Amino acid sequence: MASKYLNSLSEKEYEDLTLKLLNIQNHKCFICGEAIDLKLHSTNIDHITPLANKGKDSEENFATTHESCNKSKQDADLKIARILHKLKKIQEETLTSENKSASLKQVLKHYNGSKFDFKYTTDGNKLKYSFSDIGDNTIYETEIHTDHLSNEQTCFIALPLEYVYHDELINPRGINSSISKLVKEFEKKNPQLHLSLGRIEENKIKIFDGQHKAVAQILLGTKSLLLRIFISPDIDRLTETNTNAGSVLSQIAFDKSVMRQLNNTLYYERIKKYQEDHNLKSDDFSFSEQKLVEYFKGDNANIKKYIIDSIKHSITEANENKLKDYIDREGKAKEVPISYSAFDKSFLTIFIDSKKLLSTPINFKSDEGLNPRELEISQTITLLNIIAEEIYINKFLPEIGVAKIENKVIAGKDNDITDDHLIAFRMSKEEIMFNWLGYVKDVIINYFSNTGRKFNNNSLFQQKFDDQLWTNIRNFVINLKMLPLWKDRAMANTTFSGKKNYDYWKTIFETGKSSDNVPVLAKPINYVEMIKSPQAD
Fold first, then answer.
1. Is 109 helix (H, G, I), strand (E, B) or coil?
2. Taking the alpha carbons of 514, 517, 518, 523 in that order, is the dihedral positive or negative?
3. 208 in the same domain as 153
4. Quick one: 329 and 225 in the same domain?
5. Which of 122, 234, 396, 495 has the greatest number of C-beta atoms within 10 Å?
6. Cβ(305)–Cβ(278) below 8 Å
7. pTM of the prediction?
8. Which N-terminal residues, if any, form the signal peptide (predicted)?
9. Is 36 helix (H, G, I), strand (E, B) or coil?
Protein backbone atom coordinates (compact mmCIF):
# COMPACT_ATOMS: atom_id res chain seq x y z
CA MET A 1 0.00 0.00 0.00
CA ALA A 2 1.41 3.39 -1.03
CA SER A 3 2.52 5.84 1.65
CA LYS A 4 0.75 9.21 1.59
CA TYR A 5 3.39 10.51 3.98
CA LEU A 6 6.34 9.60 1.75
CA ASN A 7 4.56 10.83 -1.37
CA SER A 8 4.09 14.22 0.29
CA LEU A 9 7.83 14.72 0.83
CA SER A 10 10.04 16.78 -1.44
CA GLU A 11 13.20 15.20 -2.80
CA LYS A 12 15.28 17.02 -0.16
CA GLU A 13 12.92 15.95 2.66
CA TYR A 14 13.08 12.34 1.45
CA GLU A 15 16.90 12.45 1.47
CA ASP A 16 16.91 13.98 4.96
CA LEU A 17 14.56 11.25 6.22
CA THR A 18 16.82 8.60 4.67
CA LEU A 19 19.82 10.02 6.56
CA LYS A 20 17.84 10.31 9.79
CA LEU A 21 16.75 6.67 9.60
CA LEU A 22 20.25 5.52 8.68
CA ASN A 23 21.68 7.26 11.74
CA ILE A 24 19.11 5.45 13.91
CA GLN A 25 20.06 2.16 12.17
CA ASN A 26 23.84 2.75 12.51
CA HIS A 27 24.00 3.04 8.71
CA LYS A 28 22.96 -0.59 8.26
CA CYS A 29 20.17 -2.05 6.13
CA PHE A 30 17.13 -2.92 8.24
CA ILE A 31 16.70 -6.24 6.42
CA CYS A 32 20.17 -7.69 5.83
CA GLY A 33 22.11 -5.83 8.54
CA GLU A 34 24.93 -4.97 6.13
CA ALA A 35 26.33 -1.44 5.73
CA ILE A 36 24.62 1.12 3.53
CA ASP A 37 26.82 3.61 1.65
CA LEU A 38 24.65 6.18 -0.08
CA LYS A 39 27.39 6.77 -2.67
CA LEU A 40 27.40 3.10 -3.63
CA HIS A 41 23.92 1.79 -2.84
CA SER A 42 20.41 2.56 -3.98
CA THR A 43 17.99 2.60 -1.04
CA ASN A 44 14.31 2.44 -0.21
CA ILE A 45 12.27 3.67 2.72
CA ASP A 46 9.53 1.23 3.70
CA HIS A 47 7.04 0.64 6.49
CA ILE A 48 8.32 -1.66 9.22
CA THR A 49 4.78 -2.84 9.97
CA PRO A 50 2.72 -2.73 6.74
CA LEU A 51 -0.24 -0.38 6.56
CA ALA A 52 -2.35 -3.44 5.78
CA ASN A 53 -1.39 -4.76 9.24
CA LYS A 54 -2.43 -1.49 10.88
CA GLY A 55 1.06 -0.01 10.81
CA LYS A 56 1.31 3.76 11.11
CA ASP A 57 2.16 5.94 8.11
CA SER A 58 4.66 7.98 10.09
CA GLU A 59 8.40 8.26 10.77
CA GLU A 60 8.49 5.86 13.72
CA ASN A 61 7.24 3.08 11.41
CA PHE A 62 9.81 3.63 8.65
CA ALA A 63 13.17 1.98 8.00
CA THR A 64 15.80 2.31 5.28
CA THR A 65 16.90 -0.74 3.29
CA HIS A 66 19.08 -1.56 0.33
CA GLU A 67 16.84 -1.33 -2.72
CA SER A 68 17.87 -4.88 -3.70
CA CYS A 69 16.95 -6.22 -0.25
CA ASN A 70 13.57 -4.52 -0.35
CA LYS A 71 12.79 -5.91 -3.79
CA SER A 72 13.78 -9.44 -2.86
CA LYS A 73 12.35 -9.47 0.66
CA GLN A 74 10.39 -12.58 1.62
CA ASP A 75 7.60 -10.76 3.46
CA ALA A 76 5.76 -7.42 3.44
CA ASP A 77 6.53 -7.00 7.15
CA LEU A 78 10.12 -5.75 7.41
CA LYS A 79 10.62 -7.39 10.82
CA ILE A 80 9.63 -10.76 9.38
CA ALA A 81 11.69 -10.07 6.24
CA ARG A 82 14.73 -9.39 8.44
CA ILE A 83 14.22 -12.66 10.34
CA LEU A 84 13.78 -14.69 7.15
CA HIS A 85 16.87 -13.05 5.65
CA LYS A 86 18.91 -14.22 8.64
CA LEU A 87 17.59 -17.73 8.13
CA LYS A 88 18.36 -17.56 4.42
CA LYS A 89 21.99 -16.66 5.20
CA ILE A 90 22.25 -19.62 7.58
CA GLN A 91 20.79 -21.89 4.89
CA GLU A 92 23.16 -20.59 2.21
CA GLU A 93 26.21 -20.92 4.48
CA THR A 94 25.21 -24.49 5.37
CA LEU A 95 24.72 -25.43 1.74
CA THR A 96 28.13 -23.97 0.87
CA SER A 97 30.10 -25.44 3.77
CA GLU A 98 28.28 -28.74 4.33
CA ASN A 99 26.48 -29.32 1.02
CA LYS A 100 23.14 -30.00 2.71
CA SER A 101 20.01 -28.22 3.89
CA ALA A 102 20.20 -26.30 7.16
CA SER A 103 18.35 -27.72 10.16
CA LEU A 104 17.75 -26.78 13.78
CA LYS A 105 21.41 -27.71 14.37
CA GLN A 106 22.76 -24.79 12.34
CA VAL A 107 20.19 -22.32 13.75
CA LEU A 108 21.15 -23.28 17.31
CA LYS A 109 24.83 -22.84 16.47
CA HIS A 110 24.14 -19.38 15.03
CA TYR A 111 22.20 -18.33 18.15
CA ASN A 112 24.75 -19.59 20.68
CA GLY A 113 22.96 -22.86 21.41
CA SER A 114 24.16 -26.47 21.83
CA LYS A 115 27.04 -25.72 24.16
CA PHE A 116 26.60 -27.64 27.41
CA ASP A 117 25.68 -31.04 28.81
CA PHE A 118 22.47 -31.33 30.82
CA LYS A 119 23.33 -32.24 34.43
CA TYR A 120 20.53 -33.96 36.30
CA THR A 121 19.63 -36.57 38.92
CA THR A 122 16.44 -38.51 39.53
CA ASP A 123 14.82 -39.04 42.92
CA GLY A 124 11.69 -41.17 42.76
CA ASN A 125 9.28 -39.40 40.47
CA LYS A 126 11.30 -36.17 40.50
CA LEU A 127 14.05 -35.01 38.16
CA LYS A 128 16.46 -32.42 39.58
CA TYR A 129 18.70 -30.24 37.43
CA SER A 130 20.68 -27.02 37.28
CA PHE A 131 22.05 -24.67 34.61
CA SER A 132 25.30 -23.85 36.39
CA ASP A 133 27.26 -23.55 33.11
CA ILE A 134 25.40 -20.32 32.36
CA GLY A 135 25.65 -19.01 35.93
CA ASP A 136 22.28 -20.28 37.19
CA ASN A 137 23.07 -22.48 40.21
CA THR A 138 19.45 -22.89 41.27
CA ILE A 139 18.43 -26.51 41.76
CA TYR A 140 15.18 -27.03 39.89
CA GLU A 141 12.95 -30.07 40.02
CA THR A 142 10.13 -31.32 37.84
CA GLU A 143 7.76 -34.27 38.03
CA ILE A 144 8.48 -37.39 35.98
CA HIS A 145 5.39 -38.74 34.21
CA THR A 146 5.12 -42.39 33.15
CA ASP A 147 3.05 -43.16 30.06
CA HIS A 148 0.73 -46.05 30.95
CA LEU A 149 0.77 -47.52 27.43
CA SER A 150 4.41 -47.24 26.35
CA ASN A 151 5.90 -47.02 29.85
CA GLU A 152 8.12 -44.20 28.62
CA GLN A 153 9.08 -41.61 31.22
CA THR A 154 8.91 -37.91 30.35
CA CYS A 155 9.09 -34.52 32.01
CA PHE A 156 8.60 -30.88 31.03
CA ILE A 157 11.44 -28.35 31.20
CA ALA A 158 12.01 -24.79 29.95
CA LEU A 159 15.49 -25.28 28.54
CA PRO A 160 17.99 -22.48 27.75
CA LEU A 161 19.25 -22.71 24.16
CA GLU A 162 22.76 -23.44 25.42
CA TYR A 163 21.47 -26.86 26.50
CA VAL A 164 19.44 -27.68 23.38
CA TYR A 165 20.71 -29.90 20.53
CA HIS A 166 19.19 -31.16 17.29
CA ASP A 167 18.57 -34.90 17.00
CA GLU A 168 20.03 -35.82 13.62
CA LEU A 169 19.40 -39.53 14.19
CA ILE A 170 15.62 -39.49 14.61
CA ASN A 171 14.91 -36.24 12.75
CA PRO A 172 17.36 -35.71 9.87
CA ARG A 173 15.13 -33.27 7.98
CA GLY A 174 16.22 -29.83 6.93
CA ILE A 175 14.13 -26.68 7.34
CA ASN A 176 11.38 -26.33 4.75
CA SER A 177 9.25 -23.42 3.53
CA SER A 178 6.62 -23.87 6.27
CA ILE A 179 8.95 -22.02 8.65
CA SER A 180 7.80 -18.59 7.40
CA LYS A 181 4.19 -19.38 8.37
CA LEU A 182 5.28 -20.41 11.86
CA VAL A 183 7.35 -17.26 12.29
CA LYS A 184 4.34 -15.14 11.36
CA GLU A 185 2.06 -17.13 13.65
CA PHE A 186 4.30 -16.80 16.71
CA GLU A 187 5.10 -13.15 15.92
CA LYS A 188 1.36 -12.43 16.32
CA LYS A 189 1.73 -13.65 19.94
CA ASN A 190 -0.31 -16.76 19.14
CA PRO A 191 0.88 -19.53 21.50
CA GLN A 192 2.64 -22.75 20.57
CA LEU A 193 -0.07 -25.40 20.96
CA HIS A 194 2.15 -28.50 20.68
CA LEU A 195 5.50 -28.67 22.44
CA SER A 196 8.67 -29.79 20.75
CA LEU A 197 9.91 -33.18 21.92
CA GLY A 198 13.42 -34.00 23.09
CA ARG A 199 15.30 -36.94 24.52
CA ILE A 200 18.29 -37.28 26.81
CA GLU A 201 21.29 -39.02 25.26
CA GLU A 202 24.75 -38.92 26.82
CA ASN A 203 23.71 -35.92 28.94
CA LYS A 204 22.57 -33.94 25.93
CA ILE A 205 18.94 -32.99 25.26
CA LYS A 206 18.16 -33.47 21.58
CA ILE A 207 14.99 -32.25 19.85
CA PHE A 208 13.61 -34.98 17.59
CA ASP A 209 10.13 -33.61 16.89
CA GLY A 210 8.94 -30.04 16.37
CA GLN A 211 12.19 -28.62 15.02
CA HIS A 212 10.37 -26.07 12.83
CA LYS A 213 8.45 -24.72 15.83
CA ALA A 214 11.71 -24.51 17.74
CA VAL A 215 13.46 -22.70 14.87
CA ALA A 216 10.62 -20.17 14.51
CA GLN A 217 10.78 -19.32 18.21
CA ILE A 218 14.57 -18.99 18.15
CA LEU A 219 14.43 -16.67 15.11
CA LEU A 220 11.94 -14.49 16.99
CA GLY A 221 14.37 -14.10 19.86
CA THR A 222 13.41 -16.65 22.50
CA LYS A 223 16.30 -17.71 24.74
CA SER A 224 14.70 -20.92 26.05
CA LEU A 225 12.31 -23.58 24.79
CA LEU A 226 9.64 -25.46 26.72
CA LEU A 227 10.13 -29.13 25.84
CA ARG A 228 8.62 -32.48 26.69
CA ILE A 229 11.69 -34.59 27.37
CA PHE A 230 11.95 -38.38 27.18
CA ILE A 231 14.21 -39.86 29.86
CA SER A 232 16.20 -42.99 28.88
CA PRO A 233 13.84 -43.74 25.97
CA ASP A 234 13.76 -46.74 23.68
CA ILE A 235 15.46 -45.12 20.64
CA ASP A 236 14.20 -47.80 18.28
CA ARG A 237 10.64 -47.18 19.41
CA LEU A 238 10.93 -43.39 19.14
CA THR A 239 12.42 -43.65 15.65
CA GLU A 240 9.69 -46.01 14.51
CA THR A 241 6.99 -43.82 16.04
CA ASN A 242 8.40 -40.73 14.36
CA THR A 243 8.60 -42.60 11.07
CA ASN A 244 5.01 -43.82 11.37
CA ALA A 245 3.90 -40.25 12.06
CA GLY A 246 5.14 -39.33 8.61
CA SER A 247 3.88 -42.39 6.76
CA VAL A 248 1.13 -44.55 8.27
CA LEU A 249 -0.40 -41.74 10.32
CA SER A 250 0.43 -38.94 7.87
CA GLN A 251 0.97 -36.43 10.66
CA ILE A 252 4.05 -34.81 9.19
CA ALA A 253 5.13 -34.25 5.62
CA PHE A 254 8.15 -36.54 5.41
CA ASP A 255 9.48 -36.80 1.90
CA LYS A 256 10.68 -40.18 0.71
CA SER A 257 14.37 -39.35 1.06
CA VAL A 258 13.93 -38.58 4.78
CA MET A 259 11.85 -41.72 5.24
CA ARG A 260 14.70 -43.75 3.77
CA GLN A 261 17.17 -42.15 6.15
CA LEU A 262 14.95 -43.07 9.09
CA ASN A 263 14.55 -46.62 7.82
CA ASN A 264 18.32 -46.79 7.45
CA THR A 265 18.57 -45.97 11.17
CA LEU A 266 15.96 -48.59 12.02
CA TYR A 267 17.85 -51.22 9.98
CA TYR A 268 21.05 -50.68 11.95
CA GLU A 269 19.09 -50.72 15.21
CA ARG A 270 17.73 -54.16 14.22
CA ILE A 271 21.25 -55.37 13.41
CA LYS A 272 22.41 -54.17 16.82
CA LYS A 273 19.48 -55.92 18.50
CA TYR A 274 20.20 -59.18 16.63
CA GLN A 275 23.85 -59.04 17.70
CA GLU A 276 22.91 -58.42 21.33
CA ASP A 277 20.33 -61.22 21.40
CA HIS A 278 22.81 -63.69 19.86
CA ASN A 279 25.79 -62.61 22.00
CA LEU A 280 27.69 -61.38 18.94
CA LYS A 281 30.28 -58.63 18.97
CA SER A 282 29.40 -55.32 17.33
CA ASP A 283 31.75 -56.10 14.42
CA ASP A 284 30.36 -59.60 13.85
CA PHE A 285 28.20 -59.64 10.70
CA SER A 286 28.23 -63.38 10.09
CA PHE A 287 24.43 -63.44 9.71
CA SER A 288 22.44 -62.66 6.57
CA GLU A 289 19.66 -60.25 5.66
CA GLN A 290 17.37 -63.27 5.41
CA LYS A 291 18.29 -64.31 8.95
CA LEU A 292 17.33 -60.85 10.19
CA VAL A 293 13.91 -61.10 8.57
CA GLU A 294 13.36 -64.57 10.00
CA TYR A 295 14.41 -63.52 13.49
CA PHE A 296 12.11 -60.49 13.57
CA LYS A 297 9.33 -62.55 12.00
CA GLY A 298 6.54 -60.52 13.57
CA ASP A 299 7.88 -57.45 11.78
CA ASN A 300 9.30 -59.03 8.64
CA ALA A 301 7.58 -56.69 6.15
CA ASN A 302 9.14 -53.66 7.84
CA ILE A 303 12.56 -55.33 8.14
CA LYS A 304 12.59 -55.97 4.39
CA LYS A 305 11.75 -52.33 3.77
CA TYR A 306 14.44 -51.15 6.20
CA ILE A 307 17.07 -53.24 4.40
CA ILE A 308 16.26 -52.00 0.90
CA ASP A 309 15.76 -48.40 2.03
CA SER A 310 19.15 -48.55 3.75
CA ILE A 311 20.78 -49.58 0.46
CA LYS A 312 19.01 -46.80 -1.43
CA HIS A 313 19.88 -44.22 1.22
CA SER A 314 23.54 -45.30 1.23
CA ILE A 315 23.69 -44.78 -2.54
CA THR A 316 21.85 -41.45 -2.64
CA GLU A 317 23.60 -39.75 0.27
CA ALA A 318 27.14 -41.11 -0.23
CA ASN A 319 29.76 -38.35 -0.06
CA GLU A 320 31.30 -39.61 -3.28
CA ASN A 321 27.98 -39.46 -5.19
CA LYS A 322 28.49 -36.54 -7.58
CA LEU A 323 24.91 -36.64 -8.84
CA LYS A 324 23.35 -35.89 -5.45
CA ASP A 325 23.94 -32.14 -5.88
CA TYR A 326 21.43 -32.25 -8.75
CA ILE A 327 18.67 -34.08 -6.85
CA ASP A 328 15.85 -32.13 -5.21
CA ARG A 329 14.83 -33.73 -1.90
CA GLU A 330 12.35 -31.08 -0.77
CA GLY A 331 10.05 -31.34 -3.76
CA LYS A 332 9.91 -27.62 -4.49
CA ALA A 333 13.38 -26.63 -5.63
CA LYS A 334 13.77 -24.54 -8.77
CA GLU A 335 17.55 -24.78 -8.98
CA VAL A 336 18.21 -28.49 -9.54
CA PRO A 337 16.96 -30.69 -12.40
CA ILE A 338 16.17 -34.13 -10.91
CA SER A 339 13.22 -34.51 -8.56
CA TYR A 340 13.68 -37.16 -5.89
CA SER A 341 10.57 -38.84 -7.29
CA ALA A 342 12.20 -39.09 -10.73
CA PHE A 343 15.45 -40.36 -9.18
CA ASP A 344 13.53 -42.95 -7.18
CA LYS A 345 11.36 -44.15 -10.05
CA SER A 346 14.26 -44.36 -12.50
CA PHE A 347 17.71 -45.00 -11.00
CA LEU A 348 16.63 -46.73 -7.79
CA THR A 349 13.77 -48.68 -9.34
CA ILE A 350 15.68 -49.90 -12.40
CA PHE A 351 18.92 -50.89 -10.70
CA ILE A 352 17.95 -51.91 -7.14
CA ASP A 353 15.72 -54.95 -6.60
CA SER A 354 13.24 -53.94 -3.90
CA LYS A 355 12.35 -57.57 -3.13
CA LYS A 356 15.62 -59.46 -3.17
CA LEU A 357 17.16 -60.30 0.22
CA LEU A 358 20.55 -61.95 0.47
CA SER A 359 21.08 -65.30 2.19
CA THR A 360 24.85 -64.82 2.31
CA PRO A 361 26.38 -63.26 5.48
CA ILE A 362 26.32 -59.48 5.61
CA ASN A 363 30.14 -59.49 5.58
CA PHE A 364 30.38 -62.09 2.78
CA LYS A 365 33.61 -61.59 0.75
CA SER A 366 34.06 -58.06 2.13
CA ASP A 367 37.79 -58.63 2.52
CA GLU A 368 38.01 -59.53 -1.20
CA GLY A 369 36.06 -56.47 -2.37
CA LEU A 370 33.32 -58.74 -3.70
CA ASN A 371 30.59 -58.26 -1.10
CA PRO A 372 27.36 -58.10 -3.16
CA ARG A 373 25.76 -55.21 -1.25
CA GLU A 374 28.97 -53.21 -1.10
CA LEU A 375 29.46 -53.76 -4.84
CA GLU A 376 25.84 -52.77 -5.50
CA ILE A 377 26.29 -49.50 -3.63
CA SER A 378 29.74 -48.56 -4.96
CA GLN A 379 29.02 -49.50 -8.57
CA THR A 380 25.68 -47.71 -8.64
CA ILE A 381 27.49 -44.63 -7.35
CA THR A 382 30.06 -45.04 -10.15
CA LEU A 383 27.20 -45.03 -12.66
CA LEU A 384 25.73 -41.90 -11.06
CA ASN A 385 29.13 -40.22 -11.25
CA ILE A 386 29.51 -41.01 -14.96
CA ILE A 387 26.11 -39.45 -15.62
CA ALA A 388 26.91 -36.44 -13.43
CA GLU A 389 30.25 -35.86 -15.18
CA GLU A 390 28.88 -36.18 -18.70
CA ILE A 391 25.52 -34.41 -18.35
CA TYR A 392 25.46 -32.10 -15.33
CA ILE A 393 28.77 -30.94 -13.84
CA ASN A 394 29.78 -27.54 -15.32
CA LYS A 395 26.89 -27.93 -17.76
CA PHE A 396 23.66 -27.51 -15.79
CA LEU A 397 23.57 -24.01 -14.27
CA PRO A 398 21.74 -23.77 -10.91
CA GLU A 399 21.38 -20.00 -11.31
CA ILE A 400 19.25 -20.65 -14.42
CA GLY A 401 17.42 -23.54 -12.75
CA VAL A 402 14.44 -25.42 -14.14
CA ALA A 403 11.52 -22.98 -13.85
CA LYS A 404 9.57 -22.52 -17.10
CA ILE A 405 12.53 -23.46 -19.31
CA GLU A 406 10.44 -24.57 -22.29
CA ASN A 407 8.19 -21.49 -21.97
CA LYS A 408 11.26 -19.24 -22.11
CA VAL A 409 12.48 -21.06 -25.21
CA ILE A 410 9.08 -20.68 -26.90
CA ALA A 411 8.97 -16.97 -26.00
CA GLY A 412 12.50 -16.38 -27.30
CA LYS A 413 13.71 -15.38 -23.81
CA ASP A 414 16.34 -18.10 -23.70
CA ASN A 415 19.59 -16.24 -24.43
CA ASP A 416 21.02 -17.27 -21.08
CA ILE A 417 20.02 -20.93 -21.50
CA THR A 418 23.01 -22.77 -22.94
CA ASP A 419 22.68 -25.92 -25.03
CA ASP A 420 24.34 -27.93 -22.25
CA HIS A 421 21.81 -26.62 -19.72
CA LEU A 422 18.89 -27.42 -22.01
CA ILE A 423 20.22 -30.94 -22.66
CA ALA A 424 20.59 -31.65 -18.95
CA PHE A 425 17.15 -30.25 -18.18
CA ARG A 426 15.39 -32.30 -20.84
CA MET A 427 17.21 -35.54 -20.11
CA SER A 428 16.20 -35.18 -16.43
CA LYS A 429 12.46 -35.43 -17.00
CA GLU A 430 11.15 -38.51 -15.21
CA GLU A 431 9.47 -40.16 -18.20
CA ILE A 432 12.55 -39.53 -20.37
CA MET A 433 15.12 -40.58 -17.77
CA PHE A 434 13.31 -43.83 -17.03
CA ASN A 435 13.47 -44.83 -20.69
CA TRP A 436 17.09 -43.98 -21.42
CA LEU A 437 18.26 -45.61 -18.19
CA GLY A 438 16.53 -48.75 -19.43
CA TYR A 439 19.03 -48.72 -22.31
CA VAL A 440 21.91 -48.40 -19.83
CA LYS A 441 20.61 -51.58 -18.22
CA ASP A 442 20.52 -53.21 -21.67
CA VAL A 443 24.15 -52.20 -22.22
CA ILE A 444 25.11 -54.03 -19.01
CA ILE A 445 23.06 -57.13 -19.80
CA ASN A 446 24.44 -57.25 -23.34
CA TYR A 447 28.01 -57.11 -22.02
CA PHE A 448 27.43 -59.93 -19.55
CA SER A 449 25.78 -62.03 -22.27
CA ASN A 450 28.60 -61.48 -24.77
CA THR A 451 31.29 -62.36 -22.21
CA GLY A 452 29.47 -65.54 -21.20
CA ARG A 453 28.89 -64.51 -17.59
CA LYS A 454 25.93 -65.67 -15.56
CA PHE A 455 23.89 -62.82 -14.19
CA ASN A 456 20.63 -61.90 -12.55
CA ASN A 457 18.71 -59.15 -14.36
CA ASN A 458 17.48 -57.74 -11.05
CA SER A 459 20.82 -57.55 -9.25
CA LEU A 460 23.29 -56.60 -11.97
CA PHE A 461 25.31 -54.26 -9.78
CA GLN A 462 26.07 -57.00 -7.25
CA GLN A 463 28.57 -58.43 -9.76
CA LYS A 464 31.87 -56.67 -10.40
CA PHE A 465 31.96 -54.70 -13.66
CA ASP A 466 34.99 -54.88 -15.97
CA ASP A 467 36.70 -51.67 -17.08
CA GLN A 468 35.42 -52.23 -20.61
CA LEU A 469 31.83 -52.28 -19.37
CA TRP A 470 32.33 -48.93 -17.65
CA THR A 471 33.77 -47.58 -20.94
CA ASN A 472 30.71 -48.88 -22.80
CA ILE A 473 28.36 -47.18 -20.33
CA ARG A 474 30.21 -43.85 -20.55
CA ASN A 475 30.26 -44.00 -24.36
CA PHE A 476 26.52 -44.67 -24.41
CA VAL A 477 25.79 -41.69 -22.13
CA ILE A 478 28.00 -39.38 -24.22
CA ASN A 479 26.46 -40.51 -27.51
CA LEU A 480 22.96 -40.22 -26.05
CA LYS A 481 23.44 -36.62 -24.89
CA MET A 482 24.84 -35.72 -28.33
CA LEU A 483 21.56 -36.59 -30.08
CA PRO A 484 20.20 -33.41 -31.75
CA LEU A 485 16.73 -33.52 -30.15
CA TRP A 486 17.94 -32.45 -26.67
CA LYS A 487 19.09 -29.03 -27.88
CA ASP A 488 16.54 -28.57 -30.67
CA ARG A 489 14.67 -25.49 -29.45
CA ALA A 490 12.01 -25.85 -32.13
CA MET A 491 10.72 -28.88 -30.20
CA ALA A 492 9.87 -26.79 -27.11
CA ASN A 493 6.21 -26.44 -28.04
CA THR A 494 5.82 -29.95 -29.49
CA THR A 495 7.90 -32.90 -28.32
CA PHE A 496 8.89 -31.30 -25.00
CA SER A 497 5.69 -29.41 -24.26
CA GLY A 498 3.88 -30.53 -21.13
CA LYS A 499 4.38 -33.82 -19.34
CA LYS A 500 4.37 -36.90 -21.55
CA ASN A 501 3.91 -40.47 -20.31
CA TYR A 502 6.51 -43.22 -20.25
CA ASP A 503 5.15 -44.92 -23.38
CA TYR A 504 5.43 -41.70 -25.39
CA TRP A 505 9.21 -41.71 -25.00
CA LYS A 506 9.48 -45.47 -25.25
CA THR A 507 7.93 -45.18 -28.72
CA ILE A 508 10.31 -42.35 -29.73
CA PHE A 509 13.42 -44.26 -28.65
CA GLU A 510 12.26 -47.50 -30.28
CA THR A 511 10.96 -46.06 -33.57
CA GLY A 512 12.48 -42.58 -33.92
CA LYS A 513 8.95 -41.15 -34.15
CA SER A 514 6.34 -39.98 -31.68
CA SER A 515 3.07 -41.87 -31.19
CA ASP A 516 1.42 -39.49 -33.70
CA ASN A 517 4.10 -40.37 -36.28
CA VAL A 518 6.12 -37.13 -36.02
CA PRO A 519 9.88 -37.68 -36.65
CA VAL A 520 11.96 -36.93 -33.54
CA LEU A 521 15.16 -38.96 -34.04
CA ALA A 522 17.01 -39.65 -37.27
CA LYS A 523 16.75 -43.35 -36.40
CA PRO A 524 15.74 -45.52 -33.44
CA ILE A 525 18.22 -45.87 -30.60
CA ASN A 526 20.64 -48.76 -31.13
CA TYR A 527 22.54 -49.20 -27.86
CA VAL A 528 25.07 -51.55 -29.49
CA GLU A 529 26.07 -48.79 -31.90
CA MET A 530 26.06 -46.19 -29.14
CA ILE A 531 28.61 -47.96 -26.94
CA LYS A 532 31.28 -47.22 -29.54
CA SER A 533 33.70 -44.38 -28.97
CA PRO A 534 31.99 -41.00 -29.66
CA GLN A 535 34.73 -40.25 -32.20
CA ALA A 536 33.89 -43.36 -34.27
CA ASP A 537 31.73 -43.11 -37.35
1. helix
2. positive
3. yes
4. no
5. 396
6. no
7. 0.64
8. none
9. coil
What does the alpha-carbon distance between residue 229 and residue 205 come to, in Å, rounded to a whole number? 8
Q: Please give the tally of structural domains in the chain.
A: 3
d(CA 332, CA 344): 16
| pLDDT tens string 429-467 | 999 999 999 999 999 999 999 999 888 888 999 999 999
Q: Are residues 457 and 327 in the same domain?
A: yes
Q: Which of 73, 96, 118 is the endpoint of a domain? A: 73
What's the one-letter identity of residue 206?
A: K
At 242 the pLDDT is 75
Residues of the chain with pLDDT under 50: 249-254, 536-537
Q: In 10 A of CB 529, how many CB atoms?
A: 11
Instruction: Tell me the C-alpha distance between 85 and 97, whole Å.
Output: 18
Spatial distance between the Cα atoms of 204 and 164, rounded to a whole number of angstroms: 7
Residues 60 and 116 in one domain: no
The angle, 0 to 180 degrees and rounded to 10, between the axes of the packed helices 179-187 and 78-98 is 150
Pairing of strands 153-160, 224-231: antiparallel
Per the prediction, the chain carries an average pLDDT of 91
Instruction: Give residue 457's pLDDT.
Output: 87
Count how many residues are written for the chain: 537
Distance CA 471, CA 473 (A): 5
Residue type, 32: C
Task: Specify whether the backbone of 339 is left (phi greater than 0), alpha (psi in -120 to 50) or beta.
Answer: beta
Assigned domain for 162 exists: yes
Evaluate whether 226 touches 213 at the Cβ level (below 8 Å). no
Residue 53 belongs to domain spanning: 4-73
